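Section 4.2 – Deliverable D4.2 (structural model, holo form)

The reporting period included a commitment to supply a predicted holo structure for the target in complex with flavin mononucleotide. Inputs used:
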Amino acid sequence: MSSVKILFKISGSIAAYKCAAIISKLVQSGFEVQTVATEAALRFIGPATLEGLTGKPVLTQLFEPGQMMNHIHLVKWADMTILAPATANTINRLAHGLADDLVGALFLAHDRNKPYLLAPAMNTNMYHHPATKLSLEKLQNWDVTVLPTNQGYLACGDEGPGKMLEPEAVITYIMEALEAIRSSSDQSRQILITAGGTQENIDSVRFLSNISTGHTGASLADSFIRRGVHVTYLHGMMALKPTLPCYFQSFESSSDLEAKLKQLLSKKRFDAVIHLAAVSDYIPDTLLVEKQTMPLPMNEKLTSNPKRISITLKRNPKIIKKIKSFSKNKQIKLIAFKMTAQSSADQQRQAALNLLEETHSDMVVGNDIADRKENCQYIFQIYKRSSKSHHQSARTVDNLGEILNKELFETKD
Ligand SMILES: Cc1cc2nc3c(=O)[nH]c(=O)nc-3n(C[C@H](O)[C@H](O)[C@H](O)COP(=O)(O)O)c2cc1C
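Output (structure tokens):
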């Protein structure tokens, strides 16, 4: 699989240090990054940092012997471009179509079918100046995605808008832009991971949930991203997120999770779903207060006056049983997780095999809460539908990712 190629342009702002964090994450995630910097940018961030992070020399000059046609080659090479930080000067130059340096020439030669993102970074007055405002409007009309800025303390001591977004937020925009390209044409390996707990509302401020942290899901997502797999991460509100860039969406209740799964799976072709989300087995049904029964959830807040209340819960149908039916890819593989509590090896095995049958999943990963060790050592048992008598074991989440990756993408059943 060829990696995604990103043309990363940097202009001369104090926020240039933030681009090092962004580039580092992109490279760790398997993306190929080529940096292009204005002369002023190199006063804020050194060529050694940029070359060290990307493994490629930073380009600045338009008239570089042997590289004269970079302004054309690079736009063809790149899947997308980002300019971060974008100074007032560069924004105004681009909006006037000036091509007297490599950043400007590359902009005029840019293929407008590919995403071009721009993250402004400047003092509030520069950001509010009519020249800058007009230029940003012009660039937006030319299909440039202008990212918002943060409000806050600026290097000049002023407070207000114009502060460049933090690296994580810029990465989210990059992933969204890439997601749009991929969903139309992708032959690459794609998996959907669900993680974290559902929140089932009782009233407008209270809900039922569980202790799922999303830790295994987030680490497993990182493990797949490191192996060049594209991950879509669907997570509970309190769940941890992967440290490496991927496309993610959050869910609240189990019905919200089901709706989002249906929407994602029917729209886009995934090779596998790894369903780690801890979905409530029971959801609030009715509330009994002073002999009066009310349906749940309530839209308003329940008062704290009644001395005693009763809440009844009803069984929640299992989402996992419907996952394959939502999928556009009828060959999709489904991996379920079975957490047991203080069970014997035999009981764990039986619970995993029962889940394989009940859910029509292709693999079940079993682990017992008693086997979780403080230094992130687990014992995962991996059972396959195609060979139930045999199972594999993993002791870390990364080891589990390695085994699942092999089973999904390298083993022919
Ligand atoms: C310390 C310092 C910080 C600066 N920070 C910014 C900034 O955040 N945003 C901006 O638009 N210009 C900033 N400037 C001004 C630009 O560096 C200047 O306009 C330069 O010509 C921009 O060149 P370029 O757009 O080709 O990179 C700063 C200048 C200095 C000396």
